[in-house]
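User: quick one, sequence for these tokens?
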């Protein structure tokens, strides 16, 4: 009987220790800034940081643990600065920011010369309902999988991302630098604007770069890309495979006729390209000779 009683009590202790309570931190009531709220968040489980008033804070915001950042309805929360504004990074090998969510924030960068992205995801993260405004001529949102499988599955959803000018083919409104560990990145419902670019490699709405790997799968669906100058709407490098590019709209807003550049440029070998709408671009869709289209039965509309 003593052994049974001891075992039940010890099991209860294990259950208590293993349980992680959800944590909500209110800014500025519990912590004076978003950065300090993250610093005080739990290193286990997920902490939710809620901003309770209109807010402006200087970046960078470093998410070195798993958090959700949001705000009360009807408010505007702006992260501003001249360089990196938000990064999902590692606190240690055991505790990472993998799975973090940023919902409804505005990121505003002014001034030229910065070589850093505004938002940088080194681990799996979700950016949704956000506004990203860049006057710094570089990357808006950067997703890269370099830190193991915790980077797989990032989601960019229902964001507005606007660059006043691009930088190069690798510097775009959205730049997904894929590897084995950034597999299954999804871009959906985003509005992307490239303003006043002066060459096709300067202004790219969504650029997918990759190293050869048969496990890469990127989904680009239901996005709208608009360009007022020269550029590409969606561009995938020659080493990108297994990409689904469907139900997107790419349009040129350049005055005086069609914009110079490609609506969709696909250099990989295998792709699903389905029911996209291309308006006023110099070339609707460009495919390399070795590209295998797995679904082109439903027409892409080119105007």
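Assistant:
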């Amino acid at each position: 009987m003593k052994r049974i009683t001891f075992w039940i009590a010890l099991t209860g202790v294990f259950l208590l220790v293993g349980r992680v309570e959800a944590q909500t931190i209110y800014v500025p009531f519990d912590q004076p800034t978003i950065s300090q709220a993250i610093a005080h968040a739990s290193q286990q489980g997920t902490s939710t940081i809620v901003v309770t008033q209109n807010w402006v804070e200087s970046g960078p915001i470093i998410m070195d643990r798993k958090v959700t950042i949001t705000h009360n309805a009807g408010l505007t929360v702006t992260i501003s600065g001249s360089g990196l504004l938000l990064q999902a990074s590692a606190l240690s090998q055991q505790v990472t920011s993998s799975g973090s969510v940023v919902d409804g924030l505005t990121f505003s960068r002014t001034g030229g010369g910065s070589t850093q992205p505004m938002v940088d995801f080194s681990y799996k993260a979700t950016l949704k309902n956000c506004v990203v405004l860049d006057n710094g001529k570089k990357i808006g949102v950067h997703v890269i999988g370099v830190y193991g499988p915790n980077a797989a599955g990032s989601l960019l959803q229902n964001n507005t991302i606007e660059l006043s000018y691009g930088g190069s083919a690798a510097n775009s409104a959205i730049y997904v630098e894929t590897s084995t560990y950034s597999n299954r990145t999804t871009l959906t419902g985003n509005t992307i604007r490239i303003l006043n670019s002066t060459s096709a490699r300067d202004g790219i709405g969504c650029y997918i770069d990759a190293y050869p790997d048969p496990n890469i799968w990127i989904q680009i669906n239901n996005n709208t890309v608009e360009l007022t100058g020269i550029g590409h709407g969606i561009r995938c490098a020659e080493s990108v495979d297994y990409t689904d590019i469907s139900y997107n709209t790419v349009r040129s807003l350049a005055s005086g006729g069609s914009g110079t550049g490609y609506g969709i440029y696909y250099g990989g070998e295998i792709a699903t390209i389905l029911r996209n709408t291309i308006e006023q671009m110099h070339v609707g869709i460009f495919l390399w000779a070795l590209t295998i289209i797995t679904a082109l039965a439903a027409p892409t509309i080119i105007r």
